[in-house]
Design a protein that fits this description.
Elements (H helix, E strand, L loop, with lengths): L1 H14 L20 H5 L22 E9 L5 H11 L3 H15 L3 H9 L2 E5 L4 H7 L3 H12 L11 E3 L11 H8 L3 E3 L2 H4 L3 E9 L3 H12 L5 E8 L1
Parallel strand pairs: 1-6, 2-5, 5-6
Antiparallel strand pairs: 3-4
Length: 236
């Protein structure tokens, strides 16, 4: 029986090889769509010195850390990966990227200390229900699930705990002022018990100006949460 299974698995690998969706090379990792090289060495580290802020943004009160895994590469492989996650339903890509983000955070001493010292909750940036119904998933939630595989003791809020009540348009090309206005009162906390006095680990795919995550952090703070950390795969 074991020889038959080995033959079947070998045949499957020949006919349906595991191919990295980023570089196109075959790899041996099961249940993954991005190879180890692309996850560890392909992209530019977004915060090599482990600063509290990896971008050039000024953080509002209540947000203690903003950290991005990689620098965004407009028109490059990383943008393509995030596009595949967001628009082509390759949710396993989100899990791969979330795990990579979780492992990178383990190397950031400030974030590690905060997660050790505080009761925390993972807050993926919510989608409006119309977008969720259209796509069938929330890419930030897929990232958060991958992240939680590394930080197993930190719970993820459910889809109904914190909602997006404004169906905002894409903010590509918007000025900072217009982005901020577009996001005003976009979120609402439905389960205040979950976030009360907790460190909120906000997770999203890309950090650009911070308009979305800043507004979410402010909503969480008004709902009784403790400080917030913003974590993203990329920063533009």
């Amino acid at each position: 029986m074991s020889k038959l299974l080995n033959f079947a698995n070998g045949f499957k690998r020949v006919v349906f090889p595991n191919v990295c969706v980023c570089c196109g090379r075959e790899h041996t990792e099961q249940q993954r769509q991005i190879c180890s090289f692309c996850l560890s060495d392909r992209f530019e580290d977004g915060n090599l010195q482990n600063e509290r802020v990896s971008s050039d943004s000024l953080l509002p009160d209540g947000i203690v850390v903003q950290h991005a895994l990689w620098e965004f590469d407009k028109g490059g492989d990383l943008q393509n990966l995030l596009h595949q996650l967001k628009y082509e339903r390759l949710t396993t890509v989100g899990r791969d990227l979330g795990r990579a983000l979780g492992r990178r955070v383990q190397e950031h001493p400030v974030i590690v200390d905060m997660l050790d010292e505080h009761q925390s909750v993972i807050v993926p940036v919510p989608l409006h229900y119309l977008k969720f119904r259209y796509r069938g998933f929330n890419q930030a939630f897929e990232l958060a699930q991958g992240f939680q595989e590394i930080w197993e003791d930190v719970p993820i809020c459910d889809i109904d705990d914190i909602i997006r009540r404004k169906n905002t348009r894409t903010q590509t090309g918007f000025s900072l002022e217009k982005r901020l206005k577009n996001m005003q009162k976009a979120f609402s906390v439905k389960n205040k018990t979950l976030i009360k006095n907790r460190l909120c680990v906000i997770i999203d795919d890309v950090f650009t100006t911070g308009a979305t995550t800043f507004e979410l952090a402010d909503t969480l703070k008004k709902g009784g949460a403790g400080p917030a950390i913003i974590l993203t795969v990329a920063q533009a």
